[in-house]
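Crash report, auto-generated. Payload:
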Amino acid sequence: MLNAANPADPMLRIAGLNSWYGESHILHGVDFDVREGEVVTLLGRNGAGKTTTMKSIMGLVPRREGSIRFKGAETASMRPDGIARAGIAFCPEERGIFASLSVTENLMLPPQIAPGGMSVAEIYTLFPNLKERSGSQGTKLSGGEQQMLAIGRILRTGARLLLLDEPTEGLAPVIVQQIGRTIREIKARGFTVLLVEQNFRFAATVADRHYVMEHGRVIDMIPNSELSANMDKLHEYLGV
Amino acid sequence: MISIFGVPGPLLFGQLSLGLINGAFYALLSLGLAVIFGMLNIINFAHGALFMLGAFASWMLLVPNTWLAMISPGLSVPDWLSLGYWPALVVAPVLVGAFGLLLERTVIRRLYKLDHLYGLLLTFGMALIIEGLARNAFGSSGMPYRTPDALQGPVNLGFMFMPKYRLWVLLAAGGMCLLTWFLIERTQLGARLRAATENPDLVQAFGVNVPRMISLTYAGGVALAAFAGVLAAPIYSVNPNMGSNFIITVFAVVVIGGMGSILGSIVTGFGLGIVEGLTKVFYPQASATVIFVVMVIVLLARPAGLFGKAA
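Recovered output after restart:
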C-alpha cells in the first residue's frame, strides 16, 4: 500500500477505530490512511459506516476508541473544535446550511484556523451562483447551490484536509459535474480530500484510491487505476 | 385641555408612559430569556431573581458600609467602593453575570440533554433559594433607592411632563435592546450564536468553542436581567420579591412574542406595556389580566407566538 513516490507519513492514519451510538456498535476496527494531496473515497452500501467514520474523525459521535492520527498527532480524544483547529474541515451529508443565516453569513461562519485558505473572491469564482445570491437566506438556495455553499465555506478556513460526505447526493448531473470539477480544482490547489460516495462512477472521476467499507470495517482498497479491472468485485461489494 | 376619546390627555399620556416603562422592563427581561432559551434550551425561571440581584447589587454598591454594618457591626470597606448609580450600571450586570456564569458551569449545564421541564424546575428552585436568601438577609420590606441627582425632577416633552428618570429608563432600555438585537442579528459573533442555536455540533466541528459560547450566552442573558434590575431600583423599591412580581408577566410576554425570538421579545415587551397602560385608562378593572387575555388569544390563533416559527 505504500506509494514509493510519497514516502512521508500519511496525513491521516486511522487504526482500530471503534464507534458507538448508545448501545449500537457501528464501527468495528476501521483502518485506513490518507496521504497529503490525495483524494480518497470511502465506498460502501448504506449502513456500512462511512458517515460514522467521518463523524468519528470529527469527534461527533458519542463514543469512539482507537487511533486517529492527523499529521502525526493523536486526535481520538479531542473535542470537535480542537480537531477542526488542528486543520480538518467537515462538510456533512445533510449540508448543514443554517436557515437563520444569509449565504454570506454561512460562508463566513467557520473561523479561520490557519493561513492559506481560499479567499472569498476565489470561492465566488469557483461558484459564481453563490455571489449572485449572497444576500439570500441560506436554505432558500437550490440543493446544488447549498452543496456549493457547504463546500465553499470550508475552503476559506485554512484547513488542509477536507471531509466531504456524499457531496453529489440528490443533485442533477450537471451539478454533479460541477462538484467533480471543484474537487479536481481543490486537489490541484494541494488540498487533501476524504470523500464518502455511493456513486463510484463519480468517485472514479476524482479519486486516487478507494476504500470499500462493509459492516463497520474497511474490507478492501482499490487504486483508481485498477478500478476497471476490479469492476466485478466492486459490483459485488456495493450490490449494484 | 386636550382630550382623546373623552379621556383627558395628561391621564392618557401618563398611563402610556407608565405602560412604556413597564414595557421596557418586559422587553429587557424577555430578551434575556429569549437569548438563553435559544442557545441553552433552558426556560430560565431564575430570571426574575437575577433581575432582583441586579437591583440589590446596585443598591449595595451605593453605600456598601450601610448594609455591611447591618450584617456585622464594625465591618466596613473604604469609601471609594461607594460607586453610586452610574458605575453600578456596568458593575452590577458584570457581577451578576459572573454569578450566572458560575450557575451555568456548576449546575445548569448538567441539564442540557434532558427535557425542558428539568431546566424549568431547577431554575425555579434556584429562584426560590436566591429570593429566600435575600429575604433572610434584608427582610421583605424593601430598600429605598434615591434617584441619581442628574435625573431628578421632570422634563417637559411639550405634550406632557415626564420624570427625567423615566425618560432615561426608556432610552437606556431601548438602547440596550437595539444593541443586543444588533449584536445577534448583524455581527459575526451573532451569526455564530444563531448557527449554534440551530446546530451546535456542526458549529463546534467548524472550530468554535461552543460550550464556552453557551456559558457566556447565559452570563449575557443574566447580565441583561441585572441591567434591568439596576434601572428598576430607583422606580420600584429594592426588595426580594421585585423579580417574582415581574416574571409571570414576562413569561406571558415571551409566549406571546414567540419563544426564542429576539425581535419578538422587544416588540412584544414594549407593545404589551402600552396595551397594559391603555387598559388602565379605558377599563382599569382589566389592567391586571389584559396581558393574559392577549396570551390566550395569541396561543389559540398562533401557537408559536407572534414572531415565533412553527416547530
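Post-recovery validation: The longest helix of chain A spans residues 173-188.
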